[in-house]
Write the structure tokens for this entry.
Amino acid sequence: QVQLVESGGGLVQAGGSLRLSCAASGSIASLNAMGWYCQAPGKQRELVAIISSAGSTNYADSVKGRFTISRDNAKNTVYLQMDSLKPEDTAVYYCILKNYRFTGAMDYWGKGTLVTVSS
């Protein structure tokens, strides 16, 4: 099993910054990806950014140039630096770990952390 512990959410004014962290523990595959999804009220959960164990990244178009994802493989931790925040970034942000094994892929989710951006 895998456990994910998120931190760093909160209330910030538009234009401000927040840094989210997610620490993973447990059975983590050597080939994996870690990242963040967000879910705003009344909307589906959607990808924000993801980074592979090799360091490849993918971002949603809406956050490119404003958010930066990084990871510390030694700590099994992923970070999301969120700059130039907008009210529309308000959502619950969920950490995800994708384990890729010979038998297939499996996703693990954190409990979520709320980010509120006031105008």
Observations:
- The chain has a mean pLDDT of 96.
- Residues 8 and 45 are 19 Å apart (CA to CA).
- The longest strand covers residues 91-101.
- The chain is about 0% helix and 60% strand.
